[in-house]
């Protein structure tokens, strides 16, 4: 078990151990099946060789062993599904944290970057408009919207506090990407036209990577962001610094007609 774990990325979220436990169980089953079927294959090659069976049998072999093994494998697989996979998945897709309790962030994937959008101290995401999308404003945030005034946006840098539930609203501007946080054991496709919630609780301070886990175009290899898990105090410091940068915001006021 420990040998397997040493090959995995570090566990940096509360549900990581559960996912790893299941992965290891599945791999043990696969190892047993691989060896079992391998020996069975060799046995069949020998048992049904032409020399011993000059005339083909049209009725086939009848053995109880093969059938009972298949039933046993099916039972183990069903148990893995029912007792591990489905409950673990249900927690990920049903038991979302309340927005008031969580750090809520929008992540907008694009070829080939991760745009991060924080709602700011008011907790409300500002309006975004595709017409406002530009090189300086990749998510098309409308700074004239009162809710948008304090919004923080970053590119390829997601800062989060430790030990608090994180709720990510994930979407994409162009093609299908996949939000892969290996240390958090999080992977979710980002699909244009859809906003998909993803949640986890980071529990280890550190610098990790946001990898795009879906071949999304020629620059896929460089679609790499960073996720920094900080203590609550450090996170707050970072957040305040980001807010400060917004202060002298040169709001593009539309010239009066
Ligand atoms: Cu991508």
Brief digest:
By secondary structure, the protein is α+β, with helices and mostly antiparallel strands. 32% of the residues lie in helices and 23% in strands.
Shape: elongated
Helix content: 25-40%
Tally of contiguous helical segments: 4
Largest sheet: 5 strands, mixed
Kindly state the number of beta strands. 10
- Give the radius of gyration: 26 Å
Bound ligands:
copper (II) ion
Q: What is the strand content? A: 15-25%
The SSE string, one letter per element, is HHHEEEEEEEEEEH
What separation lies between the terminal Cα atoms?
71 Å
Helix-strand category? alpha+beta
Mean pLDDT: 90
Strand ordering within the main sheet: 3-2-1-5-8
Low-confidence segments, given as residue ranges, are none
What's the arrangement of secondary structure elements?
Blueprint: H1 2-6, H2 16-47, H3 64-93, E1 103-110, E2 113-118, E3 152-155, E4 157-161, E5 166-172, E6 177-181, E7 186-190, E8 196-200, E9 206-212, E10 224-230, H4 232-246
Parallel strand pairs: 1-5, 4-10
Antiparallel strand pairs: 1-2, 2-3, 5-8, 6-7, 6-9, 9-10
This protein binds copper (II) ion.
Copper (II) ion (CU) binds at residues 109, 112, 177, 212, 214, 216, 220, 223.
